[in-house]
Structure formats: C-alpha cells, structure tokens
Amino acid sequence: MRNTLAIAGRELRAYFHSPIAYLIIAAYSVVCGFFFYNITAEYVVESFRMQSMGGGMGMPSMSINEIIIRSLFEGVLTVVLLFLIPLITMRLYAEEKRSGTIELLLTSPLTDFQIIMGKFLGAFALYAILIVITFLYVGILFIYGNPAAKPLLAVALGILLFGAALLALGMWISTFTKNQIIAGGVSFGVFLLLYVFNWVSAYSTSPMGRILAYLSLTTHFDNFAKGVIELKDLIYYLSVIALGLFLTARSVEALKGRAS
Amino acid sequence: MIEVEGLTKRYGPTLAVNDVSFTVQKGEILGFLGPNGAGKTTTMRVITGFLFPTSGRVRVAGFDVGTESLEAKKHIGYLPETPPVYPDMTVSEYLAFAARIKGVARGDIKKRVGDVSERCAIGDVQRRQIGKLSKGYRQRVGLAQALVHSPDVLILDEPTAGLDPKQIIETRELIKSFAGDHTVILSTHILPEVSKTCQRVLVISGGQVVAEGAPDELVRRLQGYEDIVLIVEGPAPEIIDKLQRITGVNVVEPREAAGTQVTLEVHAEKGHDVRADLAQTVVESGWKLFELKTGGLSLEDIFLKLTTKDLSEAQESAPSPALDIS
Prior knowledge:
The complex is a heterodimer. Chain A is globular, with a radius of gyration of 20 Å. Chain A has eleven helices and no strands. By secondary structure, chain A is mainly α. Chain B has a seven-stranded mixed β-sheet with strand order 6-7-8-3-9-10-15, with helices on both faces. In chain B, strand 4 and strand 5 (about 65) form a beta hairpin. The interface between A and B is medium-sized, with 26 and 32 residues.
C-alpha cells in the first residue's frame, strides 16, 4: 500500500509539474462550463415558454435532473471525456519507456500490481479533480432551483466509473509504445469505438448486435445518468476496469520477456 | 554474491546472450568488456530482474531473481545506461522517491538521501530540477539512486559514458571506493576503463564470454612477446641481415624509415623471448637503439582480436568457450 501510494503520489505530482494537468483542467472547465451554461439557458427559456402557454395537461415534465443534469452528463460530458482521458493516460507507461525510468520501477522491489495500481490511482486522482469541478457547476443549480440531490450520487458514481474504465484501458494501451502521441491517438480510437457500439441496436436485433450494444460504454451509463444504480451496470464498469488493469499487467510482463 | 548459470536470452530469432555463466565474489569489482551489442546490457538487465531470461538461472545474495525477485531486488542497486531520472523532479524529491519504493524505512529516508548525496557529490544541487542538470550531475544522481537503499550488489551499465575526462576520473574513483562493501558489476566498451577500475574482466562478444581474467593478466597473456618493434639508427639492410641470424627470430621487416632511423618489426618463434638478444646485437654492432617494445598489439588490437567474428567462431568450435587464463 505504501509503495502504491508512493507511485500514485509521484504520478499526480508529475501531472502538475508539467503543463498537462493545467491544460486538461482549463480545457475541461471551459468546455464543461460552456455546455452547462448552454443547457441551462435553454432550459430557462423553455420553461418560461411553457409557463406562458399555461402548462399543465400533456406537457412533458420540466425536471432539472432529467433535462439539465442528464443531458449534461450523458449527452455532452461523456463525449468530452473521450478526448480528455487519452491526454491523461497516454504518458503513464509511454513516458517511462521513452525516458528509461521504467528500468527504475521494474528493478525496484515492487510488484507489478503495486506499480499498476499506483499509476492508475494517480491518473484517477487527476480525473477526480475534473469531476469535482463538474459538480461545482451542478451546485449552482441548487442556488436557483431545487434538483433532487440523491440521484446526483448515482450520476457521480456513474461518471467516476465511466472515467475509471477508460483510464484503465488507456493505461493498457500506453504500455505498447514509447510514443505518447501514438498511445493517445490509439486510445481515442478505441474509446470512440466503445462509445458508438450501441448504435448497432438502432437497426439490428441479432445476437451480435445485442452483444455489441451490451459492450458499449454508453449503454451502461444511461441508468446512472437517470439517477438509477443498476447492478449490471456496476458490474460492467468494474469488469472493464479489472480487465484494463489485468491487460496492463500482462503487457508489462511481456515487456520483461521482450526487448523494450 | 552473484551467480549466473547458463544464461540465455533470445529476442525472437536473435540470440542476444548465449549460455553465459560466471560468479562474482562478495566485494569484487567485475568488468564486462565488449563492443556495443555484445549482450552486456541484456545480461545486466536479466541480473537486475528487468528482463526474464529465456533459460538459465541468476542468484543474487542467495535469492533467485526469477522466483524470489522481490527479495533479490532489495539487494541490487542498478544504474542503467541512461540514468532513470524524472526530469520534472528535484534531486531530493527524486532520491526520496527512489528510497521509498526501494523499501527504505520512512524514518531513515532523509538520512539515506543525505548520505548518498554526499557520497556522490550532489549535495549542492538538491533543490534543482533534474532536467536542468548537466549530464555529469544526472549520472551522479543516477548513481545515488542505485546506492540509496545500501544494496550489496551494484550493477552499473556504462557508468562513465558521456562524461568529460575529469568526471570520468571522479566516477572511477567513486566506483573503486565501493569495492569491499559492495559487489560491483560494471560494463564498458572502453578498454583502459576496466584495467583502471576492475579486479576481474569478462570479455563478452556475440553474446558469449570469450575471455576472462584479471585485466593485467589478460593483456600480458594476449600481447605476448613474439612481436617486437625496434627503432634503430644505422644502415637498414645490414641491420636486418644481422638481426635475422639471431636464434628464434623468424622474420625482420622494415616498417618505415624516418631520416637515419628505421623502424623494424621482428617476429620471433612462439615461446622465444629474443628481446635481450636484439638489444645486445644492436648495441654491440655500434648502432643506436632508440626504442624496443613488444607487440604490434595495443590494448585496442587485443580487444579487436578477442571480439572479431573469426575468433568468436573459433571459440565456439573449441570445447571450452571461455579462454580462462587465471
């Protein structure tokens, strides 16, 4: 545990020693803030219009949770994260391989698992900062409206799991190359594919189509965004995280067998 | 302290290290000498546990690197060819991190970092970012990292590569000061380096050990005294004629003439030391002897001789792959 925390601490510090952490946080805050403003403004205009029309019969409900929070997280932020998470994970192993510091880690009395968990937690800590920023925006809603608080916990859990799954996969991809740009680019491609897998369900009900839809990252975020925690979604994200960590371990093992 | 047994490492179809075996005693400094790509780095990486061997066994301080790797790694300090430093960290941050992951107790970290910094002469750059340090400093930070958990065994991959002459001398002195307390393996492709720092040398070429012994012995043994170079002032044809009559002398060849001086190459029969006879003959004939030295073979020639392809092939066909001269 001590070793894992040492690695995690160094990873997190490395993000802040380079411009990358500030860049990611700034970019995320601006983009997230823009969408938040946009969605909220639209909501306000829409609700005024409904009021002037008299409201009532047959009108869709104007739930803040449903309209603002769900569309912010499910419709927008998951896509923004597809771009930003590769920026977090691309350096995890690629940079160590390029600079040779991987030799320090792999020849120290650490297990591969301690190193992998340390790196994962370091990256996750930076990601968690982004999510905290998001909830600062969401907090504004409590000043002017009265969204339901409890479903927000499900949203928070969902977005953390969604990000953690991508971080684990991105870390795995980063073990294959010394080149951070390649690691980042490939990660983005893989994330995008996982994101759009469920599109097949629009036209296909074959078993293959259903499997692809099940594998999609989006399918499982839907319930969380609605404020519902379903066991199958929880299991899905935890499995993807475990798979990413496991594949990273295998890949590091292979590094030791081959030339690096 | 270090036992390597039948170590073989393949990268796909390429054989990087082929059945290498050796042991290093406690407190000894062993040099790996060989051209680039001979398998020195690969051998070191297997000893440190960075790479798995294809076959063979390595034991460090009594622990098998393959099966008891955590224990073995606690006893090893490793400086790779490029110092494994994080450019964004300061020297003290980095050394504290290295100490932490190498299992130095939390309370001892500060003291250990102070000790190794003093030993490696990096006390004055503690708060500087490593990325902004010169190559020489970075190398010493790398060395401090290898020492921080007071390991029994130090593996140093080309510790003087890329340093200026003054730094090279300082680094060599530092490494020599480790003898006794630490068991050291260092690699180099520079010949004088081994004779200056190591007590024993393994010459590695094409993934195999082609020669082994103390550096002086190695030179003496391979240099021999069958080839002698003479610089004499006098009539060349007459000198050649006279020298050729000495028993044991096979051929005398003029190499070059500068003014009245001629440089001659004398090849004697194996096992004949004709140096005294040559000197006597020249002086008694009234010529002037300016220089007499053994060997057309310099250290570099010996190195080439040991590591060129012909020889390693000859070694391969020989019953014993290692030319043991001790």
